Amino acid sequence: MSLLHIAQNFTVYGGLVLLVAGVVGNTISIYIFSSVGTYRTAPCGFYFMVESIFNILYILINLTSRIVSVGFAYDLTATSVVWCKTRNFFVATLGLVTFTCSCLATIDQFFATSRSVSLRQCSNLKWAHRIVLIAIIVWCLHGIPILMYYDIIPTLKSCGSTSKALTTYIPIFVCVLLCGIPISFMIIFGFLTYRNIQHIRALAEQRADRQFTQMCLIKVVLIIITNTPFGSYTAYGLITSGMTKDLNRQMQEYLAASILSVLNYTYYVGSFYMFLISSKRFRQTVKTRIFCWHGLNQINPSATFT
C-alpha cells in the first residue's frame, strides 16, 4: 500500500472514530456543565461548556468536510465559493475560541487557588460571561480577511488565499495563535495553579474546587500531546517552503501531516474523556445523569471536594 493510501485511510477511519467520539463526548459535556448547579455556577464550568459547544461545531464543520474530501474525493470548497470562505472562517474562528476558553479556565483556576483575596475575586461568573463574549467578537473580526480573500483559485481548482500577505500569515497564525500561545499560557498558569495548591492545606477553605483544578491540569497535558507536534510540523513546513522536494519526500510529508492533523483533532474530542479520567465527581455525575446509575455510596456533587 502506498504512502498516499495509508494517509488517506488513516484520515478517513481515524477521523470517523474521532467524529463519533467527539460528538458524543462534547454533547454530554454540554449537558453536564449546563444542567448541574455546581458546574453551571462556576466560571471554570462555564468556560468548559462554551469550549464544548465550539468543539462540537469545529468537529462537525471541519472534520466532517475533511473526511468527505479525502475519503470520497468530493471537496465542496473547490466548487462553492461560499463554502470555501465560510469553512475556512469557521475553522480559524472556532479553534481560537476553543483555545481561548481552555486558557481562561486555567487562568481562572490560578485565581481560584490563590492565597490573595483580590485574585480569588477575579474568579467571577459575570466576568467570565463578558470575557467570552469579547473573545468571540474579537476572533470573528480576526477572521474577516478570510471571508474577503479566500476564493477558488482557477489555476489550481482549489480553495485558497488570493492575498500574498494572508497566505504568509496563515502558517504563522497556526504556529503562534493556535499552538504557541495556548500551550504557553496553559503550561505557565497550570504550573502556577499547581504551585498554589501545594501551599494550601485545605483547598476547600479557599473556596476553590479541586475537581476543576484537576480538570485544568490534565488539559495542559492534553494540549501538549496533541498540539505541540502539529505546531512543530507547521513550523517545519514554513521553514522548508522554499525547498525543492522530490515526490517521495512529498508523500512522506503528506503522511506525517495526515497523522498529526488527526492527532490535533484529538484535542477537540478528548476533553470529555480527560474529565472522566481526572475527576471522580464528574464520573459520578455522568453515571447518574446520563446512564441513570445510582450506587449505594452515591457522591453528592454539591458537597464533595475531590
From TrEMBL:
The chain crosses the membrane at residues 12-33, 45-69, 89-111, 131-150, 170-194, 215-234, 254-277. GO terms for molecular function: G protein-coupled receptor activity. Keywords: G-protein coupled receptor, Membrane, Receptor, Transducer, Transmembrane, Transmembrane helix. GO terms for cellular component: plasma membrane. It is a multi-pass membrane protein. It is found in: Membrane. Residues 25-275 form the G-protein coupled receptors family 1 profile domain. It comes from the Eukaryota. Its main location: membrane. PANTHER family: G-PROTEIN COUPLED RECEPTOR, G-PROTEIN COUPLED RECEPTORS FAMILY 1 PROFILE DOMAIN-CONTAINING PROTEIN. This is G-protein coupled receptors family 1 profile domain-containing protein. It comes from Adineta steineri.
